[in-house]
Design a protein that fits this description.
The complex is a heterodimer. By secondary structure, chain A is an alpha/beta fold. Helix content of chain A is 30%, strand content 26%. The termini of chain A are far apart. Chain B has one domain: Orthogonal Bundle (ABC transporter involved in vitamin B12 uptake, BtuC). The chains are: A alpha/beta, B mainly alpha.
Chain lengths: 264, 343
């Protein structure tokens, strides 16, 4: 049974994240527990520097966990070979592609890299998957553009299309809504929702857009200094989690409006 | 990687240009030989004067072949350096490979005085230059490799390469200060670069170096393409970063080290040709860029060599001066016109 046929699920138990600095362990967050089934959209929110990116990097095995377990389909993530991992998780990072000279089509087709032969020849099936990725992200008009000619919102969609072309059950995105205006933020989150529902992708993204994330996510990971909460948005609101996110003298979460409001 | 065009006409034109410049290069030189006789000699016939035949077969033909190997090899090493370091200003010089070669040759020529007369005389055979320069590049390469395993950041490696270059040129300065005029002249001539001193045996060794370097590049096409997105993305697509980096650096040192050993340090080809090639091949796909850059480098080198030998005169200019005179304005023009060098 291949990985894709099995019931894709991400399981995190007692995870501690952080990094090593001169052999000293720097702990960023601990006691992280959650389980994400297939086809769910999960957002990670929290104040700057709380460890959202570190958590995503740990989930993608880009850096080791300090402690605890990350299981993908009942298998420890560190036991995955680099090919299996490329086959299971695709990422969209905050960093722009290094080469600004890449055309959109070239960039998206790079997503097929794990599957092509030694010289990178694309099969008809590869081309079909690339075209599907282009269609679902609605960037048909952009394929002949160079990266340097794209706006932030367009580039973000192109990077998501590349992740889709990689054809993995999991997609992790680090702050995909940064630098976008409210229309493009909403558009992008709706796109992620569509991918989770229609393509049954398991999508985890970090964001500063708490109001929008509450509306769109199946579950949310709320990172605070004391505790990492994980639940459905409505239940997190009931628990009053969002009020513990930021120092409360400036803004406060309004339960009825489901959003933050300024304090006088 | 899916690319919009196959660039078939581009490749046909480039190949024709290589052939054209190859024959122009062979036809022109200090001694004027009728074109008919040139072709006659090349095809194995006997020219009217046996000296003409000798000049064509033993001097101009190997020089033209060397020019293609040197130009193409340096240009390809520049291309893969720019991708590996994700820096449009990277080239074979930046890693300090040619500085290492210079140091090796400087130690050999200028240090000969220090080691005394007999030993010095023995050391200065024609092969010892090649060995010293190859050894110099290889040692710098080993140092760079050691750093690569310790430091992850490619920017840092780039800066360390520049520092290697500074240190070696300082050592060369000190050595020059203590050496006599004759030795200094010999070193200066080597540093001018030359294509004409390579024998058929030398060409065989150069060809093997360039061929292995190119084959490694060919095997790295996928990693090179993935690296265009950055290290993190490349890794997420299953690229073994350490292995890919190691292979690319070995390929560069084989190409740049081998070429510098035979032809001396030749500037700007590695930096300018990839950028020039991107002007008419508007793709980032290395599958297309690698052969395109190799052919373009060969054309440029044949052209520079033709200019350097100042046809119909008795002078031959240093090839390094010609490539710099041509290369530096090209880079400036690209910077001014495009505002930014992209890779």
């Amino acid at each position: 049974m291949s990985l894709k046929d099995s019931h894709s699920v991400l399981e995190v138990k007692d995870l501690s994240i952080g990094y090593f600095l001169k052999k000293k362990q720097i702990l960023i967050s601990k006691e992280i527990n959650f389980t994400v089934p297939k086809g769910e959209l999960v957002s990670i929110v929290g104040i700057n520097g709380i460890g959202k990116s570190t958590l995503l990097r740990t989930l993608a095995n880009m850096q080791p966990a300090l402690n605890g377990i990350v299981h993908l389909n009942n298998k420890n993530i560190s036991d995955y070979s680099s090919f299996q991992l490329a086959n299971t998780i695709s990422i969209v990072l905050t960093e722009a592609p290094s080469s600004k000279n890449l055309s959109v089509l070239e960039l998206i087709s790079l997503g097929r890299n794990p599957y092509t032969n030694w010289i990178g020849t694309l099969s008809e099936n590869d081309k079909k998957i690339i075209q599907n990725a282009i269609n679902i992200t609605e960037i048909e008009d952009l394929v002949n553009y160079k990266c340097m000619e794209l706006s932030d919102g367009q580039l973000q969609r192109v990077m998501i299309a590349r992740a889709l072309a990689q054809d993995t059950p999991f997609i992790l995105l680090d702050e995909p809504t940064t630098h976008l205006d409210i229309y493009h933020r909403a558009y992008l989150l709706k796109l992620l929702k569509k991918l989770a529902v229609e393509k049954q992708k398991t999508i985890i993204f970090s964001t500063q857009e708490i109001d929008l994330a509450i509306q769109v996510s199946n579950k949310m990971i709320v990172m605070t200094t004391d505790k990492v909460h994980f639940d459905q948005p409505d239940k997190l609101i009931e628990l009053g989690c969002f009020n513990t996110l930021f120092p409360s003298e400036t803004i406060q979460f309004n339960k009825d409006m489901k959003r933050f409001v300024l304090r006088d | 990687m899916e690319t919009q065009h196959t660039y078939r006409t581009h490749f046909i034109i480039l190949t024709l240009l290589v052939v054209l410049f190859f024959f122009i290069n062979i036809s022109l030189g200090t001694v004027s030989i009728p074109i008919k006789e040139v072709f006659f000699s090349l095809l194995g016939g006997e020219a009217i004067k046996s000296s003409w035949q000798f000049i064509i077969l033993e001097y101009r033909l190997p020089k033209a072949i060397t020019a293609i190997l040197v130009g193409g090899g340096l240009a390809v090493s520049g291309l893969i350096m720019q991708t590996l370091f994700r820096n449009p200003l990277a080239g074979p010089f930046v890693l300090g490979l040619s500085s290492g070669a210079s140091l090796g040759v400087a130690l050999l020529i200028l240090g000969a005085g220090v080691f005394g007369g007999t030993l010095g005389g023995f050391l200065l055979g024609p092969w010892s230059l090649v060995i010293a320069s190859a050894l110099g590049s290889f040692l710098v390469l080993l140092a760079v490799l050691a750093v690569t395993f310790k430091v992850k950041d490619t920017m840092t490696i780039l800066i360390i390469g520049l520092m290697f270059g500074s240190v070696t040129s300082a050592v060369v300065s000190v050595l020059s200060y203590f050496s006599n005029a004759e030795q200094l002249q010999q070193f200066v001539f080597w540093s001018f670069g030359t294509l004409g001193n390579v024998s058929w045996n030398g060409i065989l060794i150069l060809f093997i170096c360039v061929l292995i370097g190119l084959l490694i590049c060919l095997s790295s096409i996928k990693s090179l393409n993935a690296l265009l997105l950055g290290e993190n993305y490349a890794k997420s697509m299953g690229v073994n970063l350490k292995k890919a980096t190691l292979l690319i650096i070995i390929a560069t040192s084989l190409l740049a080290g081998g070429i510098t050993a035979f032809a001396g340090p030749i500037a700007f080809v590695g930096l300018a040709v990839p950028h020039l090639t991107r002007q008419y091949f508007t793709t980032s796909n290395h599958f297309i860029l690698l052969p395109a850059v190799f052919l373009s480098g060969g054309i440029l080198m044949l052209f520079c060599d033709t200019v350097a030998q100042l046809p119909f005169s008795n002078f031959t200019l240093p090839i390094n001066a010609i490539t710099s005179l041509f290369g530096a304005p090209v880079v400036i023009w690209l910077l001014v016109r495009k505002r930014k060098l992209l890779f």
